[in-house]
Amino acid sequence: xxxxxxxxxxxxxxxxxxxxxxxxxxxxxxxxxxxxxxxxxxxxxxxxxxxxxxxxxxxxxxxxxxxxxxxxxxxxxxxxxxxxxxxxxxxxxxxxxxxxxxxxxxxxxxxxxxxxxxxxxxxxxxxxxxxxxxxxxxxxxxxxxxxxxxxxxxxxxxxxxxxxxxxxxxxxxxxxxxxxxxxxxxxxxxxxxxxxxxxxxxxxxxxxxxxxxxxxxxxxxxxxxxxxxxxxxxxxxxxxxxxxxxxxxxxxxxxxxxxxxxxxxxxxxxxxxxxxxxxxxxxxxxxxxxxxxxxxxxxxxxxxxxxxxxxxxxxxxxx
Amino acid sequence: xxxxxxxxxxxxxxxxxxxxxxxxxxxxxxxxxxxxxxxxxxxxxxxxxxxxxxxxxxxxxxxxxxxxxxxxxxxxxxxxxxxxxxxxxxxxxxxxxxxxxxxxxxxxxxxxxxxxxxxxxxxxxxxxxxxxxxxxxxxxxxxxxxxxxxxxxxxxxxxxxxxxxxxxxxxxxxxxxxxxxxxxxxxxxxxxxxxxxxxxxxxxxxxxxxxxxxxxxxxxxxxxxxxxxxxxxxxxxxxxxxxxxxxxxxxxxxxxxxxxxxxxxxxxxxxxxxxxxxxxxxxxxxxxxxxxxxxxxxxxxxxxxxxxxxxxxxxxxxx
Lengths: 319, 319
Description:
Chain A folds into 2 domains: 2-254, Rossmann fold (3-Layer(aba) Sandwich); 270-315, no CATH class. Chain A is of the alpha/beta class. The two termini of chain A are 41 Å apart. Chain A has helices at residues 2-6, 10-21, 25-38, 58-71, 85-88, 100-104, 119-135, 151-156, 170-176, 197-212, 237-253, 256-283, 285-299, 305-318; strands at residues 46-52, 76-81, 108-110, 140-146, 161-166, 187-190, 225-228. Chains A, B: InterPro entries: GTPase_ArgK, P-loop_NTPase. Chains A, B: It holds the Pfam family MeaB.
């Protein structure tokens, strides 16, 4: 598989992503072996997170900008993080027809979100899929997510640049957004700035710029700004791409780009350790039997938390 | 100690808080014993978090509102969470003269922030100090923190109501604030609304209300609003106290008050379990020796995170 992936074979890449997403132990082992072999050939892409409320026009935007980039000669991989898919059974990017043209382009690789699993699991699968795509020579990675949960925080930890896609009617839209999401963004694009909507979109842009003036920027040394665009009429996309390029240049010169990636790797390791520690603890038979009882007693004020922890760990030790 | 605390003896209460804050194993054991005995007598207070940038006038505000409440017959405990004190060696509330009148009032108990330790440790100590104060009959607890770090997130998890104290010149002040802090607040008080500053403070209040209209409220079923006050001239304090009382009534009727406390207890237990798991892992001798090496290899892209975790846990198992 290694050689085919390094040669940029999209069919084998898709199989490798499936391997990474598999829960089966033997498949996981294969996947880790493959990832290890591919590691030296990774890291050379711009990782771009794209989020926005439903209705913001994410698919149209990704298709429009994506085609533009592919036509420039870039190779683009589009991945998705959708924690809700495990609940609803649905999946963003699942409907291939949403990006019909892009999915047919020889320079593009589109992958729906991994189904099921915990947020942590989705996190790992997406990170490892990014590694695979990079090894296959994709130099731009889009990670798409719906901005209505914890997913945008996870995506922020996976990417270099984070784009928030919004539409006009800021007040209402902001209401539906998870708090704090604006502060994760390196750029905000007010989409659907066309026809009658153009003037309103300009106003919305101004409103966002006012809010942005009052929050800490997501990236050190970079000023997050709002822009308008129309994915449908291909307006403003070139400008946004220039913003992203300028961001990469600025942060590479200041080393912030590389420091963030280092930090992301470290945090991923620490998070994985935490996940493993908790997985072992909470799947322990004795702990499972007693945790609910101690939880109940803590909530009812019958036992202190410190004592509950001590009691649980005294069982965990003698295991 | 138990009887003296239940009788409201402030001197013994202070000793008990010292016991809770002690790192020594025997003192910790005593503290837990005491907490366990006092648990049935706790929970009957309004826990109010107060945060704000340095210069917002927190001490003056707490002294002014505090005296008002003590004069109404309430018994008020003021605790502090100051994660920076472990670095700077300083401590908020350390300077007793800051709240001279309040500290002399027979109905008040003022306690500086516990010095040193991790955020998690400060968290535990403050929670347990709240328990002690409640057992001693304090029916209002203020938990003060400087709004420049993770401390306000911790305080939010400790309290029923969270007040953000600001001053005029919103743009500048907001810059200095940790992102997301506004969204934690159940009320925002624009302090120093007196003399020439009054008109500006009204404008600032309006600006905050505009921002608040666009973010999710911190508490379900409660609309966070901005108010003006002058702690120095004792203006607007009565109104704020009415807001807090109205909050408590509303959320008790809707059960949100009790649900939040339950959730806080559960989260405290889960957090304590996580802390204990990580403490054991990271103090393990073999892990300590190998973690840095694996971290380095992960950052340099020489080994995958999953493999690093596997390797570390293979060592941890045979311990």
